[in-house]
Amino acid sequence: MRSWSSLLLIGALVTVSAAADGRRELMVDSPPSLEPQGLAPARQPKASPPPVEKSTWFDITEPPDVRPRPLTQLGSEPLPRWIHHQSLPRDTIEIVAIRYGVSARDLRRWNGMSPRGRLHPSRPGPLRVRARRLPPPREQLIHIAAKGDTWDSLGRRHAVFDRHLQAWNKDEIGWTLEPGERVSVWVEPMVRDAARDEGPAAGRAALIPPRAHSIGTPQSGRLIAGVQVPPGEGYERRYPNSSWGTTFAVRHLVVTLDEFHRTSGYLGTLMLGSMSFRRGGKIGPHISHQSGRDIDIRLPIRAGVRASQPVKPESVDWAAAWELIAAFARSGAVKVIFLDYAAQRELLGEARRLGVSETRLAELFQFPGGRHANRGLVRHSPGHEGHIHVRYACGPFEPVCGD
């Protein structure tokens, strides 16, 4: 089994060395001059290593606040700047591009790859990147497998994708995990710090566990350590098995639904559709909903309309629908809301009757600028006549979440 040396800290640069292959997580052409903060070196493994201690940053009782923070940058040098990135097994060009805020097309061009070139799945090489952002590099820790541990349970505990975990360890361990095995885990410091350093959230949002995050895009992504939308007053989960999301999205969703139930005066029940599977990936006919950031919500219906009936314009409570849209907008966490263009007309008319200013309506609605107008939080999308599709932004501690 390979013997790993300790983490080397060069400024804020973390280099992880292996006796056999010298693999490094991140190499920066000009190392930053900052003093290292919040990075602890891995200990040299002993002949009989003790069991891994409980990870206090995954088992806190007060999850972090939902307020966004800017993406952490490594170093003080201006961006963009050239760096060299050493990928890990199962990394993809698309994920590396998201990490550094660049396009996959540019990343391939900088490295002399074909337009559809891919990294080797098990032995990817270094990449030259003109980074536009620089999140902290991944850090290695060693977990001693205990009885009952599985790749899935370890992945959820450390907030990494279980298939990646297997790929990182298949040469030393193989595909079967046995008690006592030394499992190499590459963790995202931003995800770890979100669970360890943030203060408590308010209300029911405080019950949503930390560390659930998105990798990739809503159309081609995964959900890591997903958290489930909890039951609550005023709404019903139609598909509990696909009601999983990121911590950032689910906390904001719960806050918004509770605010709507408390302040709108709507006495009906909101029907929540699909969000994501626990591990993300494709859901039936949906193109998106793959990374825990999208959720469908049926438009509020009028009293006396049966829930089993198809939603038509005359059956919608448009005043309640406006209150729902306004509550999502106030959260500051939503990237876009998809709603059919004709339904936007109805909603806009109701908002005007309620006295909403034209300035505010222009900020929120694509209508009447045309179905393809690049304006407004609420945008047209075919097939969204009777429900809204809410897409949350990437959370502030999701380094490989993209659009």
TrEMBL record:
This is Membrane-bound lytic murein transglycosylase D. The keyword Protease applies. Its EC number is 4.2.2.-. InterPro entries: LysM, Peptidase_M74, Zn_M74/Hedgehog-like. Residues 90-121 form the LysM domain. It comes from the Bacteria. Residues 1-20 form the signal peptide. One of its GO terms (biological process) is proteolysis. Keywords: Hydrolase, Lyase, Metal-binding, Metalloprotease, Periplasm, Protease, Signal, Zinc. Pfam families: LysM, Peptidase_M74. It is an enzyme of class 4 (lyase). Transmembrane segments: none annotated. Coiled coil: none annotated. GO terms for cellular component: outer membrane-bounded periplasmic space. GO terms for molecular function: lyase activity; metal ion binding; metallopeptidase activity; serine-type endopeptidase activity. Residues 27-67 are annotated as: Disordered.
